Amino acid sequence: FIKQGDDFQCMGITQSEELEIIVHDRNGWSFCRRGRGRNAGAQFGWVPSYHVTEVATVIADHDSEGALCVKAGTVVEVVLPHYSGWTFCREWLGVEHARASRKEGWITDEYLEDVNSVASKAWKTASLLDKALERVAAGARELKEATAAKKP
C-alpha cells in the first residue's frame, strides 16, 4: 500500500509488518498504530482493510463441540467478532498462506488473547480458571453424592 495523502492520515505499510488495528471502519478502512505502547515513535494512520489481517493467539485449549478446536498458543485469523461473545476465526499459517483453504469456526472470546489490554487478558484468564474450578467442584459434588449413596 502506498501512502496517498496526509489529509486523510494514510499510512504506508509493507507485507508482514506488525500493526495494532485500533478500529475497522465500515467503509473498508482500518485505523492502525505502528509501534507498541505510548512511545514517541508510534505512528497512526488509515490502511485499506483488505491490506491487513487481524490475528489473535489462543490462550487455552479450545475444544467446544461444534466450534473450532485448537490448542493453546495457536495463532488464528479473526474473521468476524460477534457481540455474542464468540468470534469466527480461521487457522493462521502466515501471510504466504492467506488465500489457502484453512480450518475455520467459532471460538469463545475469552480464549483469544487481546493484545491491546493486559487487564482484558487477566480477566479472560481468570474467567477460564473460574470455569475450570466450577467443573472440578461439580465433579467433587457428584463423587460425594455417589459415595454417600453407597453407604449403608
Task: Note down, in words, how this protein is organized.
The protein has 152 residues and is α+β, with helices and mostly antiparallel strands. The chain contains 1 helix and 7 strands. The strands form 2 sheets. The protein has a 4-stranded antiparallel sheet with strand order 4-5-6-7, with no helix packed on it. A 3-stranded antiparallel sheet has the order 1-2-3, with no helix packed on it. It starts with 19 loop residues before the first strand and ends with a helix.
SSE inventory with pairings:
Layout: E1 20-24, E2 29-34, E3 43-48, E4 55-57, E5 75-81, E6 86-91, E7 104-108, H1 118-150
Antiparallel strand pairs: 1-2, 2-3, 4-5, 5-6, 6-7
Gist?
The protein is of the alpha+beta class and 152 residues long. The protein is built from one helix and seven strands, in the order E-E-E-E-E-E-E-H.
What topology, given as strand order, has the largest sheet?
A: 4-5-6-7
Summed up, the helix count is 1
Rounded to the nearest angstrom, the radius of gyration is 21 Å
Mean pLDDT score: 80
The helicity comes to: 10-25%
Distance, first to last CA: 77 Å
The secondary structure category is alpha+beta
The multimeric state of the shown protein is single chain
Major beta-sheet overview: 4 strands, antiparallel
What is the ordering of alpha helices and beta strands? Answer: EEEEEEEH
The counted number of beta strands is 7
The portion of residues forming beta strands comes to: 25-35%
Contiguous runs where pLDDT drops below 50 for at least 5 residues: none
Looking at the structure, what is the overall shape? elongated
